[in-house]
Write a structure and sequence with these properties.
alpha/beta; TIM Barrel; single chain; eight-stranded parallel sheet; about 10% strand; about 350 residues; disordered N terminus; two-stranded antiparallel sheet
């Protein structure tokens, strides 16, 4: 039994140019802070919530097409371990799963051996960057390091900048930074811009994802404004959450951020990626977020270069759904370990 290989969701190589409404976009780069763009932001919260509530029922993907979309979700996943009891052995097990996210019998049954399926990245604390880099050597899977005083982001600026540089020197090719939420509460947009720009400069060649901590930002307007400032400061991705807040990725928050980066692309001709993180645990949720990305931004944003999930437990449920597609039966969750 094979998935639909002509479906774009099964591609694991970003061969499609980044386009928005037919216009080709380039990578993001820092531009001067435009406070008019920030101050003019308005969000109709009730309208956003109504639209988000319709998303789970707007698109129904079934059978082979659903399997193809779930394979795409795996390719866009940042396998993550950010626990206080992390160890080198746990990180190595996670990296082994990143290399082979599906069990061999599923790969064979789906007929996807030639895809070389792998996850988007492995995300760890700085202490385990070198371990992950060694474990992933030759795989092409990037290592992402959380940085800048994760998850609170309240260390001195000099300490946070130095932490980024150490992670890049250790081999991290992606850095997930945390903004200072107080800058958003206080409307200190110049300070937020300077902070994100300093982090981006410290990243050097590494891609940077800016974690907004949306569960702490109180309003959707704050979320949108923080997104605009981070994008103007040169971030490569905007990311919802650390996964440590009481409320993490939600569809209303994601919709606001996605529309901000869409409008940013229209105004500047530059593309910024999006990463929802925290609380996304099921295959059904993966499909909801992918449908949102495709509806709001188009096919280009279904590539791991522009879309990532911050999730690990979701992989086990995706495996169970693919097992059901192949055999007609759901397997026990313990048969699909992720680490």
């Amino acid at each position: 039994m094979a998935v639909k290989h002509d479906d774009p969701a099964t591609s694991t190589v970003a061969t499609v140019p980044v386009t928005l409404y037919g216009r080709e976009l380039g990578p993001n780069r820092r531009i001067p802070l435009n406070l008019d763009w920030v101050e003019e932001v308005r969000v109709n919260t009730s309208a956003v919530e109504r639209r988000a509530a319709t998303i789970p029922g707007r698109r129904s993907v079934k059978k082979a097409w659903q399997a193809a979309w779930l394979l795409r979700a795996i390719a866009c996943m940042d396998l993550t371990t950010l626990s206080g009891d992390d160890s080198a052995d746990r990180v190595r097990r996670l990296c082994a799963k990143a290399r082979r996210p599906l069990q061999d019998h599923l790969v064979k049954a789906l007929g996807i051996e030639e895809l070389g399926l792998k996850v988007g990245a492995v995300c760890v604390y700085h202490a385990f960057v070198e371990t992950a880099v060694n474990a992933l050597k030759g795989s092409g899977i990037p290592v992402a390091a959380v940085s800048t005083g994760f998850p609170a982001g309240l260390s001195p600026l000099e300490t946070r900048v130095a932490e980024i540089r150490r992670s890049v020197e250790a081999g991290a090719s992606e850095i997930d930074i945390v903004i200072t939420r107080a800058h958003v509460f206080n409307g200190e947009w110049n300070a937020l811009y300077d902070e994100v720009a300093a982090f981006k400069e410290a990243c050097g060649p590494a891609h940077m994802k800016s974690i907004l901590g949306t569960g702490d930002l109180s309003t959707l307007r704050n979320v949108a404004r923080a997104s605009w400032v981070a994008m103007m400061a040169g971030t490569d991705f905007i990311k919802t959450s650390t996964g440590k807040e009481a409320v993490n990725a939600t569809l209303p928050v994601s919709l606001v951020m996605i529309r901000a980066l869409r409008e940013y692309g229209e105004r500047t001709g530059m593309a910024v990626g999006f990463k929802p993180a925290g609380g996304i645990k099921t295959a059904k949720q993966a499909l909801d977020w992918m449908a949102t990305m495709k509806d709001e931004l188009g096919r280009s944003w279904l590539e791991p270069t522009l879309f990532r999930y911050g999730a690990s437990s979701m992989l086990g449920d995706i495996e169970r759904q693919l097992e059901h597609f192949v055999t007609g039966r759901y397997s026990a969750s313990y048969r699909h370990p992720i680490a």
